[in-house]
Design brief:
By secondary structure, this protein is an alpha/beta fold. It has two domains: 71 residues, Alpha-Beta Plaits, CATH 3.30.70; 207 residues, 3-Layer(aba) Sandwich (Rossmann fold). It is 38% helix and 22% strand. It contains twelve helices and eleven strands. Helix 4 packs antiparallel against helix 5 and helix 5 packs antiparallel against helix 6. The protein starts with a strand and ends in a 13-residue tail after the last strand.
């Protein structure tokens, strides 16, 4: 049996009640995330809906995320949650912001967008973008971290919830270790995987050291860690936004598209377009 979960900033009690009537569900039950007990509920559980076909269109029209969630699935049963970094755990694409210091943000972001939509090969796109950064002072990386990098809404709540329940946290990124390692220390993440920018005499060379972290590398790291933890597929979650996350997401028991490109939303178990990352918590009973 599936339960309908509806959430997002616009998920008021009034709208939840209206959806319950429209779908033939019982009265909505409020879901209050652990870190938000002092706020008005913005997530609701609806049981026994009899008119499922009306739900998706109505929720889209009212900017609400909806999900049909198995009643028996528990967050406490999870062992591993993996996230992409750029435009998932954090709100920016770091390489685009680095490029801004050379007045190349638009050029780089256009290539990034193509790669995230799956229109061009990720590894080739990264080499192309990093080459455009050649000669830039390495201090710019710290400037981007300090001035531009912000966590996505709900990120800290989701991470804290994982840590309370012993769920291991993996940050996998086609971005750069300069950022993933700082986030690992700051947030208490368990493991990371990312690319290393080559720096020579304080300047970016325009090259990446070692093997590029692409879709295959992300999936391999995810599967290896799951195996090491003794986690079944059903005990894992992967969250991403771009085409280079799809192989990792396909290996997970629950794949969540976060503010994602259409190709990713189409292949994910659930999509969060409006709720914060802490909305992941509400997808489990």
């Amino acid at each position: 049996m599936s339960i309908l979960v509806v959430q997002g900033p616009e998920a008021t009690a009034l709208r939840a009640t209206a959806l319950a009537k429209l779908s033939g569900a019982a009265a909505p039950e409020a879901l209050v995330p652990p870190a938000a007990n002092d706020q008005q509920p913005r997530a609701w559980r609806l049981r026994d809906a009899t008119r499922r076909e009306v739900v998706a269109g109505w929720c889209d029209a009212h900017q609400l995320d909806h999900a049909w969630v198995p009643e028996s699935r528990r967050f406490t049963d999870l062992k591993l949650l993996a996230m992409d970094m750029d435009s998932t755990l954090i709100t920016i694409e770091c390489i685009d912001e680095i490029g801004a210091y050379l007045n190349k943000k638009d050029e780089i972001s256009a290539i990034t967008a193509q790669a995230m939509r799956g229109e061009i090969d990720y590894s080739a796109s990264l080499r192309q973008r990093v080459a455009l950064l050649a000669g830039l002072d390495e201090n710019v990386l710290q400037d981007v971290y300090d001035e531009k990098l912000r966590l996505s809404p709900g990120a800290e709540q989701l991470i804290a919830h994982c840590q309370r329940h012993g769920v291991k946290l993996l940050l996998v990124s086609g971005g750069f270790s300069f950022f993933t390692e700082r986030l690992k220390e700051r947030l208490g993440l368990d493991e990371t995987l990312s690319n290393v920018l080559e720096i020579d005499h304080g300047k970016l060379t325009g090259r990446v050291l070692g093997t590029i972290v692409n879709a295959d590398a992300k999936a391999a790291k995810f599967q290896h860690l799951a195996q090491r933890l003794g986690a079944t597929r059903e005990q894992t979650v992967a969250i991403g936004d771009g085409a280079n996350d799809l192989k990792m997401m396909a290996a997970a028991g629950t794949a969540i598209a976060w503010r994602a490109k259409p190709v990713v939303r189409a292949q994910a178990t659930y999509a969060l377009n409006y709720a914060g990352l802490d909305g992941v918590i509400n997808l489990f009973d």
